[in-house]
Amino acid sequence: MRSRNSLHTLLHSTKKVAGLLVLVFTMGAFVAAQEESTIYNFQARYDGAEPGGLIADSSGNLYGATYQGGGSHNCGGNGTAPIGCGTIFELIAPTQSGGHWTETLLYVLRGGTTDGVGPSSPLVFDKAGNLYGSTIYGGAAGLGTIFQLTPPAQQGRAWTETVLYSFGSAEGGGPRGLAIDTEGNLYGEANGADTDGQIFELSPPSITGGPWTFSSLYTFTGTNGDDPNGGLVLDPRGNLYGATFIGGTNNYGLVFELVKPATQGGTWSENVLYNFTGINGDGAQPFGGVIFHGGNHLYGTTAYGGDEIGDGTVFELSPGSNGWTETTLFQFDRNTVGFRPEAGVVFDHQGNLYSTTTFAAFNGGEVFQLAAPAKQGAPWAFTLLYDFDCTTGGGCSPLSTPVNKGNRLYGTAYSGGTAGAGFVYGIIP
To answer: What's the pTM value of the predicted model, to 2 decimals?
Structure first.
């Protein structure tokens, strides 16, 4: 039976680093600048529990996965109640402002050797409207799967799931962090077999219904990165960018580029863009990946490092003629704001940055904004948007990166809510 925080524990315990700071929770007075609205409370059994990251379609509907729930008995139980192997859901936006969102279960994972267990990362769409995702466990060897969900020909009918690939001992396991290119190739991260992680590609067949092709693009060995997490992003040339939680020169993680070979089937090569130091205000151990903004600048968070307590940072990487330059945009301090940012970041049209912290005044985490300065090099201005409260049925652990859609932020709390199974929230910045 998997515990409520088993996904969080799994992803952090893949590599143990000496010297991690013990979390000390502090209470303080926080005033939220915006009101949070709860869009949906998960009920733990049949509709799902422990939601991960969201994506949105052009109509503003939200899609995501829950790590547990769904009613399947194949993944153990809590007394007579099944824990479930996870679900894929859609939240349909209301037609009128202030209306109710409608949850639809698109698929319930069944586990066993023929289906996945524990979908964790955000889903991705292809151009045809198919959804793709990954599971940490399940499949032929119990090491995880990549799956496709095909929408029905008629609205209201069932979506069709196809397991595209089951990970075996040769590939490692725990696939996550999918990205998709314009040709429909999928890219992701995994715990490599007897390695420190790998980046893989899954290519669609040339004939409809044929098998997808798995390729290991790059293997980490510690000094060049260890434990890739947080997802991947592509540039226009098809190069991949991401971060590793530890490894690198200082064993505090790094940001990397994987350069696509000039000829098909060639070897991908790694450029280490930045090694985190964890000292003198620099961050350590990025967990939420990176994104592009403002052309070719990369942004992300580190869960540790920064101030003398090591409560985490927000950073920017800027390319130049002599390589990439890292700038710490903000250092978290649990005595004044939340701490331990583990999600990635998202921007609005004005260039303001948004993300979450795992902990805050009420131990529940917070959603924050960093406003871009008018003058280059000036400080970014921090604004607390919402402080979650675990003690009164509020959400806990907003681990996923928010989605910015229609001038509103949407995200999930991994636990908490009316049933303690997590919920989906909306905030107007």
So the answer is: 0.91
Q: Which domain holds residue 398?
A: 36-49+115-427
pLDDT one-digit tens code per residue, 305-331: 998 899 999 999 999 999 999 999 999
pLDDT in tens, 408-424: 999 999 998 888 899 99
> Are the CB atoms for 284 and 252 separated by under 8 Å?
yes
Residue 329 within a domain = yes
d(CA 290, CA 329): 14
pLDDT above 90 covers a percentage of the chain that reads 73
Split into its structural domains, the chain has a count of 1
The amino acid at 427: I
- 356 closest CA partner among 347, 348, 366: 366
Model pLDDT for residues 202-213, shown as the tens digit of each residue: 999 999 889 999
**Pure H helices in 55-100:** none
Given a cut of 50, whether residue 99 has pLDDT beyond it is: yes
The H or E element that residue 203 is part of is strand 198-203
pLDDT of residue 2: 43
Contact (Cβ atoms closer than 8 angstroms) between residue 255 and residue 274: yes
CATH of the domain at 352: 2.120.10.30
- Evaluate whether residue 96 is within a structural domain: no
The whole-number pLDDT of residue 35 equals 65
On the CB side of 252, CA atoms within 13 Å amount to 20
Q: Exposure of 347 by Cβ count < 10 A (0-12 exposed, 13-18 middle, 19+ buried)?
A: middle
Q: What is the mean pLDDT of residues 263-286?
A: 96
2 belongs to a structural domain:
no
Q: What CA–CA distance (Å, rounded) separates 45 from 126?
A: 30
Q: How many of the other CB atoms lie within 10 Å of CB of 55?
A: 16
Spatial contact of 188 and 199, defined as CB atoms under 8 Å apart: yes
| Cα→Cα distances 402→41, 369, 411, 424, Å | 17, 11, 5, 10
Query: For residue 120, is it within any domain?
Result: yes
CA–CA dist 133, 54 (Å, integer): 12
For residue 373, what are its two tokens? 């300065």
Which of 298, 294, 329, 335 minimizes the C-alpha distance to 313?
329
